[in-house]
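Sat 14:20. Reprocessing the chain from the morning session after the first attempt stalled halfway. Input below, unchanged.
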Amino acid sequence: MSTATSSSKFLPIIAAAALTLCVAGHARAGALPDTENGRYALSPLADGVLRLDTRTGAVSTCNNSGAGWACYAVPDERAALDAEIGRLQADNEKMKAQLAEREPTVTGKIDEPLPKSDSLKKSEPKVAEGERKIEIPLPSDRDMDRMMSFLERAWRRLIEMANRVQKDVNGKI
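Finished this time. Tokens:
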């Protein structure tokens, strides 16, 4: 029985040692240099190196100038698109709020559809019930103005044509 007691005394010590090794291994794996299979992935370019940050996804170009190596962030097209989408969504919400303040929304369903009207469509001739005569509606003032404008333009063109013909005839004779 003494062997069972002695092995149970070593169990917490073995567990503590295993835990220490795991923590040390994890700390060592997290402490990899930034360029050796760690945070950055490097790709050669004609005039430098393209650097990808594997944690953030940021891309930058690195060049060796006279003062030393310098890295500049490459503009992220996705970030610009996300910013524009956010701006447009905010504008949309703002306009919806303004519209809600301006006009109350219609609640409920309208039972009958609204009548469709065509401003150019002529109304049907009316029949007088007692005499069975057809009543023809008179043209509106707008229709009369359009007709008069058309006739004036036609008359001016006719006069201009007559003047041109007269000049041509006088010039040839």
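The beta strands are 40-45, 48-53, 59-65, 68-73, 126-127, 134-135.
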